[in-house]
Amino acid sequence: MPNSVLVVGSVALDNIESPAGRAEHILGGAASYASIAASLFAPTRLVGIVGGDFPEEHLQLFRDRHINLDGLQIDEKGKTFRWSGDYNDDLNQANTHETHLGVFETFNPTLPDSHRESTFVLLGNINPELQLRTLEQVNNPKLVLCDTMNLWINLAREKVLEIFSKVHVAVLNDTESKMLTGDDNVITAGKKLQNLGPEHVIIKKGEHGALMFSEKSIFASPSFPLDEVKDPTGAGDSFAGAFMGYLASTDDLSAANLRRAVVYGSVVASATVQDFSATALAKLSRDEVESRFNAMRQLSQF
Amino acid sequence: MPNSVLVVGSVALDNIESPAGRAEHILGGAASYASIAASLFAPTRLVGIVGGDFPEEHLQLFRDRHINLDGLQIDEKGKTFRWSGDYNDDLNQANTHETHLGVFETFNPTLPDSHRESTFVLLGNINPELQLRTLEQVNNPKLVLCDTMNLWINLAREKVLEIFSKVHVAVLNDTESKMLTGDDNVITAGKKLQNLGPEHVIIKKGEHGALMFSEKSIFASPSFPLDEVKDPTGAGDSFAGAFMGYLASTDDLSAANLRRAVVYGSVVASATVQDFSATALAKLSRDEVESRFNAMRQLSQF
Asked: Residue B202 belongs to a domain with what CATH number?
């Protein structure tokens, strides 16, 4: 059986403003980005919930990429999770205007039996309580990654610490790493996060790349150079999706392959931010991924 | 004749506060850091000015490193340039408290005849008018690098552009690159700076490393990971000094060697910031430099 990536997280409709323009009612959500990114590399299963208002075209986008939707609940009477925000001040920091949880308010992730044997589990950025409930339903995963965000660190710190103690890979951005550890220095913060349980801690630094802290080493990946970032939404989710998809497809958890996975994550995230929503991500070909991966070597080798 | 590095810039006495503490009347100035860093690799000549109050122990530090002081003017009646500042809010951004130009007010760099044949010229961060006057006195340099800062971009923009048009390598930090180009995106800013004349533009990003823009490629160097930064003063000057010293010592201006020079620059700068003033920089051995250089490979290879 080939490995498959199970992705749980939000599926959303977003309104977004950035210096590059404005887009409304577009596909968003951590699980959307992560599953589309993972599906570039490996069979992918999406677990989440949408309302009756969720456009058929977005479901079709998932189907076109052979993303398994057996775990996507559709609550016909409810409304899809909606988020509005802007990046007008700073492309690295979203200002949230509005959040409407909709069907997410009562979401209880339930895995179809066929999903319980998933080997690679990506716990996207949702309430850590839901991440825990999802993980409990998976029988014997090879690799579990979780993402989180400032909201959960503030509201549910203990649950974030609990899920961190149960995963192999924790992914968060530099601001979140400071919030969770109280440490301004990203190097010592990364080491403190490792002490919480994860074998690997990945700290994302946006345009400055990513750092992976492993047992014996630190890996610094640059970001792929871009002349323009239109919409940074979903960069981190795409990173995590590609990271897990690549590892699932290669079935190799060596230190060297984990480094390559970080670079694939950075490469796929670089496409995501080149347009609003998952537009550029969904157009990204495997050839372009390989071409950017090779450019990353040129960028960093000495 | 082996290459030597000519360094012109400020030699100063600093008062500095950072989250790690406070230090007073310590050795500072762009040319001090740059010449000590360069002297790790190649014979170095310091061009600058100090007053009669400049402590003998600092002169002795330069002499101990065989830094040629024939071009260091000592104005016995004047006072050495003094700078006071803190990094209490942000280690990446100094708050200036006081600046006393002292002997620097009337400084006119004059190269001893023996210095006119210098092959590697490092125009440290001073008034671009003085950088131009220094450069005019060098006969036929192989490589000229200039650094600058926000002050000169604001006060003497045209002169900064003039010196940029005459050098091979321009070095500035990310904030300065935005000021000079008006471009928030560091990638397009780097390309615009290349259009001003320099063959290579290096944008320093502090803890996020450095980017070198060359004719056909971009090189991204991470910074050396540090658990603590005590005093960031002089990091950029040490970077430039080590970059030029390494290139002078190898006499190899190939693209690959320029990349290695950037990494040596990052490595030496990482030592500088581990203590106040040039204390840690002056203790840095060539063995430790090589050990950190190898660690940089481990950090970034995939």
From this structure: 3.40.1190.20
